[in-house]
Amino acid sequence: MLMGYMEGLGLVFQFGTLLAIAGGTFLGIIMGVLPGLTSAMAIALLLPVTFGMPPVMGIGMLLGTLCGAGASGSIPAILLNIPGTPSSVATTFDGFPMAQKGEAGRALGLAIVASFFGGVASMVVLSLLAPPIAEFALRFGAAEYFSLSIFGLVIIASVAGKSLLKGLIAGLIGFFCATIGTDPIAGVDRFTFGQLSLLTGVNLLPALIGLFAVSQVLKDAFEYDPSNKLQNSPHKVDIARPRFIETLRNWRALLVGIVSGSVVGPVPGAGGSIASLVAYDQARRFSRTPEKFGKGHGAGIVSVESANNALLGGALIPTLALGIPGEAATAVLLGGLMIQGVTPGPMLFESQSGIIYGIFLAYLVANFFMLIIMCLGIKLFVRVLLVPRKQLISAIIVFCFIGVYGVDGDVFNLYIMLAFGLLGYFLNRYGFGTAPVILGLILGPIAESSLRRGLQTFGGDWTPFFTRPISVTFLVIALGLLALTLWQNYRPRQQDAASGAA
């Protein structure tokens, strides 16, 4: 390993390679800030650029893009309540409330530093634990994926707010929306009503922008009060700078985020949404002040953002060690590896050790470039809040329409965005929340296809779902979390009733 790192150092620390990594990181940050432009899209755009590059330079550029996009999705999530990427949904829980309280600079500072620590930690995990973690991820079958989805649904309900029932209802709305389109097993159309654009299901991007951006615009429009000076004036902003000391003070949340991202990342198809949601939920449970979460608490941002970037390193483990991409972005990255003549698999660490450890170091360098670029731009980012609210809302709605239409040029996606915007407005108004819907939309296809494939594999027998060790572990943990959430919701009511009687 030491010889591999020594060889990798010589490949990475060259001017051309460092410049390529920095350029890829900057492009990834731009892609992450703009809703609708994903890290997978950025990597795909850069693939032709890397054709003539040496392997470490080309892959390092793509890894920089992956790192930058993973970190910068928090910027619109904090400033505008619009997740830049699906994995940034949980960042809105505490990030946007902090921005509303005039602490946008502090929130961004925590997000940047937490993303950096998560990325560096994931590189350590990637280099030390790639073979055993990849072997563990191979044990996931249909039963394990279904149990993981049920676990995610329970977490959805627990982070939805004070009402467990409303959280479950909102999550089930997302699950139902996930059934629209072509049946993944039988191939028949469901709930499409003859609309060809729905054959592939509800597009996640219009739903995401509608639930978070359009619903916020509708709220500002319907509840606009000309006499409210606060509503018609720019937000106050605090000093925008990286928050290293405060991030380390939230060490529990940081550790929970790193562990959650490192464990979920190697599971193919799990994605950043599950990792960030698990991290947020567990950070709240381990916190001494769980009641502050969802109201603008720094630990919530630290847990989510560290998990998002720790996930990226974890997702590279099955990609490099087994040739199985952990998420969409690493699937595109896998193509880049093959183009560069790097064949993923167990023998990669022996046959091309210098290149593989050079890739590890390139990912580490990308995290440092991400930190530098984000720190230089933080004061510019936070100035978005100084724009008067009316002008900002107008710009947001224009960018929403352009972003959604620009994905594939389908006008029907605009209707989906507006429909989910109305849905999000009414859900927020009556206390249901929008995050459970989008997370249910993400988890729904995983749950359905895994359940049905599992039943086909086991001949219609439900027993393996409850006897396979990993599957039953997820179900038991989900049941325990559900019971704990019910108890946490019941206990304050009991105390209020007792105080009222006294």
How do you describe this structure in short?
This protein has helices at 2-12, 15-33, 39-46, 55-72, 74-80, 91-100, 104-137, 142-159, 164-178, 204-222, 244-249, 251-264, 271-286, 298-321, 328-339, 348-351, 353-382, 389-408, 412-429, 435-457, 463-467, 469-501, and strands at residues 181-182, 189-190. It is an all-alpha fold and 502 residues long.
Tally of helical segments: 22
Describe the biggest sheet? 2 strands, antiparallel
Mean pLDDT: 78
**General form:** globular
Description:
- This protein is mostly helical and 502 residues long.
- Helices cover 73% and strands 1% of the residues.
- The protein is built from 22 helices and two strands.
- It has helices spanning 2-12, 15-33, 39-46, 55-72, 74-80, 91-100, 104-137, 142-159, 164-178, 204-222, 244-249, 251-264, 271-286, 298-321, 328-339, 348-351, 353-382, 389-408, 412-429, 435-457, 463-467, 469-501; strands at residues 181-182, 189-190.
- Strands 1-2 form a two-stranded antiparallel ribbon.
- Strand 1 and strand 2 form a beta hairpin.
- The protein is globular.
- Residues 228-234 have low confidence and may be disordered.
